[in-house]
Each structure stands twice: as structure tokens, then as C-alpha cells.
Amino acid sequence: MDAVRERLPTTGFGFLRLVDESFGFNRHYHPEYELSLITEGSGTRFMGDRVDEFGPRDLVLIGSNVSHTWASNTPVPAGAGMVVHFTRDFVGEPLLARADAHALRELLEPSHGALGFRASGAAVRAFNDLEAAAGLHRLLRLLDILLELSRAQRRALCGPAGSRPHEHTRRRIDDVCGFLHENCTQPLPIAKAAEVAHMTPGSFSRFFRRAMGRSFTGYLNELRVARACALLSGTDLPIARVAAESGFTNLANFNRRFRELRETTPRAYRRIFSGEAAGNAEGR
Fold it and tell me: What is the pLDDT of residues 86-138, one digit of tens each?
């Protein structure tokens, strides 16, 4: 996946709080690292070549030039997203070169691409403290957060940024991905997507695989399973209803695709999420 290059201030690092009532589909990338925390809301996270669901306390460290966006399913409270942009050497190369900075250097290793964390209450408070700080104190707060993350459990979300396609290819694939995001729960024969790209179905199929690294059907299944995960974790709808509202017309096919992409069943996924939610409530 690719996106529009976003130009950010070159001050070393910066903080912003998102005030929109939704996270819209707006894939972009930039050379700076990004640390993003979403405290409320749910939806689909597009990170490099991966499509996943996100929920409250979603914390992601995004590497340089990795394309990304979040798309919420429902309105979210203003200020539910906090974002920090920084360069790898924002604290200076001499500090990163220290022997006791090994864990921090490893956290910022470019080959990681993007890393996911489960934010604790302490992490949310740390972001609020960072927002309230100014000048050198804000830099020190960011360093504290990164040091904590260097010791925390993490999961790989995607690989590092790959080569960039030509501008015409990028615009075409962005149009297609936006169309698929908006319509993935509807019947979507490849001919409809090919029309968006102004291509024949056969040419589009080859184009899509080259640009996205997977088949059109495979990517569509990823979108639908991500949507199903949000419904499983955020509602008590029956499994069959979740399948239908995610764009699957056949329950057996839904169960099969879900297991392929999440390595568990929809019912087990819901149980796991319910257990995590109960644990988080107890820990507040």
C-alpha cells in the first residue's frame, strides 16, 4: 500500500491531539517516526501492507515512510487520538550510541516497520503529561514514554516501507482502496473495482497484485474480517449476523477466512476480547 507524502515541521518532534469526530480514510506517509495513541473508538487500521482492527488504547509506533491511516466505524469523542512525530535522532546520536541505550536503539530499528502495543492507564497519563509539558520537559516526557515501550511487550504490525510506485499508480491504487473501504460490506465483483481504476478486470487483477502484494479477493477478505472483528468486540450480535454485516454471504466461508487471517474462530475471538475488556476494567 502507498499514500500521499505528508510534510511535517522539521523541529525534531511535535505533538498534536486529533479533534475530529471520526478517523477518516486518509493514507499518508512521512520520513518522521510517529507514535499514535487512540483512547476511544474502534474501526480499521491500515498500516503498510496490513489491514487490522483497532480499539480503545490502541498504541502504535510507526517507522519512517510507512503508509498508514485509521478509519473509525462510529463517531469518536473529540481528542480521542494523540499523535507524536519525531525524528530518530531527536535526542541526538551520542545518546543513542550509549551502551545503556541498546533497548531504545532496538525499538527504533528501521526494519521494524510498525509496532503495536496495548496502552495501560499509565501510558495514557504519560501522553497527557507530554501534552501539558513544554520545551525540554516535553522532550524528556517523550523519551520516558519510548524507554517504557522499549521494555514493553509488542507485536509487529507490518514490515518497513518498500519502494514507492509512480504517481499515476499511487493515485489509482489510492482511489481503489478508498472505494473498497467504503463498500467492502457490499457484493463487490472485481469488475466494479476495475471500473474505479479505469481498467479491464484482467488488467486490474494483475495491477492490484503487483501494487498490493496480494490478490483483490485476498485484500477484500482482510477488510471484511477486520470489520467483523470490530463487530465481535463491540457488539453482541450473533455470529451469523456479524458475517452478513461484514460482507460475507456464506457463514462457512466467513469462518474459514476468519480462521485463516486471525488463527482462531470468531467465537473464540469474542471470548478473548471479552476477557481482555474485563481485565482492563478491573485494572483502572
Answer: 988 887 888 888 899 999 999 999 888 999 998 888 999 999 999 999 888 98
- Which CATH number goes with the domain that contains 29? 2.60.120.10
Query: Residue 167, class by beta-carbon neighbours within 10 Å (0-12 exposed, 13-18 middle, 19+ buried)?
Result: exposed
| 113-130 residues labelled b (16+ CB within 10 A) or e (exposed) | bbbbbebbeebbebbeeb
The Cβ of residue 103 has, within 10 Å, a number of other Cβ atoms equal to: 13
Q: Which residue range forms the structural domain that includes residue 137?
A: 4-158
For residue 240, being part of any structural domain is answered with yes
23-159-272-124 Cα dihedral, nearest 10 degrees: -50
137 and 266 share a domain? no
The CATH number that applies at residue 221 is: 1.10.10.60
Which 8-state DSSP code applies to residue 218?
H
For residues 283 and 143, give the distance between their C-alpha atoms in angstroms, rounded to a whole number.
25
DSSP type of residue 26: -
Non-local CB neighbours of 264 within 8 Å, separated by 6+ positions:
258, 272
